[in-house]
Every structure is written in structure tokens, then in C-alpha cells.
Design a protein that fits this description.
Layout lengths: L8 H7 L11 H26 L1 H8 L3 H4 L1 H24 L1 H20 L4 H29 L5 H29 L4 H4 L2 H14 L9 H4 L2 H20 L9 H23 L13 H30 L5 H18 L3 H7 L2 H17 L10 H26 L8 H41 L5 H16 L5 H44 L14
Helix pairs in contact: 1-7, 2-7, 2-8, 2-10, 5-6, 5-7, 5-12, 5-19, 6-7, 6-10, 7-8, 7-19, 8-14, 8-15, 8-18, 12-13, 12-19, 14-15, 14-18, 14-19, 14-21, 15-18, 17-18, 17-21, 19-21, 20-21
Amino acid sequence: MSTHQSPSAAHGAARSKSPTAPAAVSAKTWIAVIGATLGAFMAVLNIQIVNASLADIQGAIGAGIDDGGWISTSYLVAEIVVIPLSGWLAQVFSIRLYLLTNAILFLILSAACALAQDLPQMIVLRAVQGFTGGVLIPMAFTLIITLLPRAKQPVGLALFALSATFAPAIGPTIGGYLTENFGWQYIFYVNLVPGAIMVGMLWYALEPKPMKLSLLRQGDWPGIITMAIGLSALQTVLEEGNKDDWFGSPFIVKLSVIAALALSAFLIIEFSVEKPLLNLRLLLRRNFGFGILANFLLGVALYGSVFILPQYLARVQGYNAEQIGMVLAWTGLPQLVLIPLVPRLMQRIDARIVIGIGFVLFAGSNFMNIFMTSNYAADQLFWPNVVRAIGQALVMAPLSAVATAGIEPENAGSASGLFNMMRNLGGAVGIALLQTVLTKREQYHSNVLMQSVSLFEQATRTRLDQLTQYFVAHGVPDRADASRRAFVAIGHIVQKQAFIQAFSDTFYLLGVALIVALVAALFLKKPGHVAAGEAH
């Protein structure tokens, strides 16, 4: 077993009660947990509110559509690299210093992003912000599973679920509202007040510990370097691949080779060195292994649906950022009510049943959207979004609790890094897959529909005549010009229908991914500390 894994082993040992002691938790411990989960919430929220306002940011700093994508990519690359590193770095610098430093830097960089003047400045600032924001996510998870006794961990994990599932759902709502009413800069300024509260809570509640800089010399540097190179290359491939035509681009091919070689080397190193960066043998444990798989697929669907719904509403229905946010609010707001109730539900019902119901509802919400038409908009999306919200609320906390049951304090850093990294990686894979499916299926449906649009068909000729008359009646004096416009309009109608069918296909794909996640969850065994009615 790795001895590198505990960013807070000593801290956890001091706080945690023995298995036979009552599960009493001091107010100071809860303040630390709440402050850390608030940080994780802000870090995840930041990704979604920026994505919701990306077009406005690109316009303001003079970035093209293709280049502007690096505003998000740079953040995500830095974030996914630092998540698995955080357990070890927290050991080196101490939890208090490491977490507080990154929390403060995250706020400073938020304000700096709002003041960025051009694209290079914004990309650099977002990359560094991603590195600091990425720290906040696994550290919150680590504090929950090390500071809280087992009987109280479901409560902490329910708080963490607000960052993992509620933040992505509500992000577009907040981003759209701020951008439309105050300007894009406020999507960065919005972090400052809750961020100051977070820093205050962590400053008060986390106990000072000495740094262990000697661990830098003992670090798994080959593992760190290969992991950083491999994950950076893989994340960039996933973010930029569809735009660059995947393996039709030499850039993507080179990055893919680098990712494959570096990550293969990383796996070999981690299984062969005495003190690995991440204890990958945790994946061989039944609950953690199947929990990671289910969590990866949850990431695919969670971030995939947050990506695909705004795309549909903008492209097909012509909604602006604020209107999109109002539609997506119904995937977020119910979770705010339901997630705090989940720990009580886990006391009465086997956590695995709660996970199963959650995955069934989340999958069902996607299958409700596979027969969309041109009239399918806010009203029609209401119930699928509510069902999705209920499903997401039921999944995250129980899945985290069951997957990490029995994880020793010395392995907490590895467990946290792997669990959160795989969910984020699932999101990157899901978005890349959905972008590609959307492109390919739109082309397929266009070809199929165009076969039915022929001048030999009476329905086509009738529709062209109607459109020609429409354009003549609305100020187009030249009948030949009106006829040309009618042909163009027919093409747009076909393309819109093809897009609608392609979006329906993407929802079907998300539903299938969640059914596979449900199957993985069926292999979870019942852990003692989250059994119905049990407490330690």
C-alpha cells in the first residue's frame, strides 16, 4: 500500500472516533467540511457559468470561435492534472496551507480573469485558475472521508453532491442571468463574496500542521511527470478533437500518441514503485472499482447533458443565455431540496437501492427526450428536467459513500483523486463523444431526409410553390429570386429537422450510458456503515 495517500491521515486520526464511540462531530469539524465543499461547489460552478457565457467573452476580447475554445480547455487541462496530485501535495505543504493558498489564489485569479484584455491573457489566467480550482474539489472529498466518522460521512457526501451535481445544473442559469443583465465580467466577480466566506471558514477550522518538504525528495516524480503529460494531452484531444476533425488533424494524432505512451508509462510506474503517487490497487476492490466505473459514466451523462441541452436550445429554438438558464434551472433547483434529504433516506433504505433508483430516473429523463420535434422547447423539457434532477440527487452521495466504504485514512488521498478525476474525465469523454455523434448523425439524417425532398415529389413542389408565393407577397418582386429563396428555406427546414433528430440520438446515447452505470452499480456489495439504520 502507498504511504503517499493521506493528505490528512494524522488530522483524520485525531478527529475520527473509534468504531465503538458515538458519532459526535465538533462544530469546528463541520465548519471545515462545509467551507471545503463550498470551495468545491465554486470550482465546478465556475466551469459551467463560463461555458454559458463563452460567446460573450470571445466577442469582448476579440477571440475567434475556434481559438476561444481554449478559454475552457486551458482550465480543464490544469484542473484534471492537479486533482490526482492534490493528495500528495497536501501532505507536503499541510492541508491548511495548501487549501487556503489555493482558495485565495482562486479568488484573485477570478478577479483577474474579469480584467483580461486579450485571448492570450485569458488563456493563461484560466489555466492557473484551473490549477487552483482543481485543488478545491478533491480536498473537500478527502476532508469528508477523513474528518467525519463513518456514520456522518453520508451527510458530508450529500454536501459534496451539491458541488458535483447541483453546480453543473445551476451554472448555466447563473451564467446566463449575470451575462444578460450585468455583463460577462460578473461571472468571475460572483465568486468573490462566497469565496471570502469559504476562506474565513477554512482559516478558522483547519488546524495548522508542519510542512513535510522532505517528501518532495521522496516523491514519485516519474509518475507525476507521466501523469501530467498524459492527462494534459488526453484532455486536449477530447476538448479539441471534434473541432479539428479528430485523426484527420496531425496535431490531434500527435497528442493522442503522447497521451497513450505517457499514461501507459504512468500505469507501469504506479504498479512497480514502492511509494506511488496514486494507489491504483484500490481499483481492484469490488466497491471502489465498480463505483469508479459508475462514477465515470455518471460524469459522461452529467456533463454531457449540461452540454447538449444548451446546444439544442440555442441552435434549434434560438434561445439566449438567460432563457437557456431558466430552462436548465429545473435540473438544479429540485436538487437543492432533495440532496439534504438523501442521508436520511440512506438510513432507512439500502444505499444501493437509492443508487439504482437514481440511475433509472436519470436514464429515464434522457429517454423522455428521444422523440423531439420542432415544437419541443421549454414546456416539453420541464418534466424530463425535473425527473433528471431527482435522479441526480439520489445518485451522487450514496454512490460516493458505498464506493469509499472501508477506505483507510492512508489511502484517502488516492481514493479522492481517482474518484473525482474519473468523473471529470467521464465528462470530457462524454462531451467529445456527443459533439462527434451530433455532427455525424446530423449529416446522416440530412442525407436521409434529402432523399425524400425531390422535385419529382408532389409534396416538395407544392411546398416550394407555397414558399415562393410567401416571398413574393413579402416584398420579393423577382419571382426567380423568390424561387431561389424558397429552395434555401427548404434546405434550412431539412437541416433543422436533421439537427432535431441528431439531438434525440444524443439523449438516447446518454440514457444507454446510464443503464450501463446502473449495471455497474448492481455489482456493489452492501457496506456496513451505510446499511439502513446502522451507525458506528
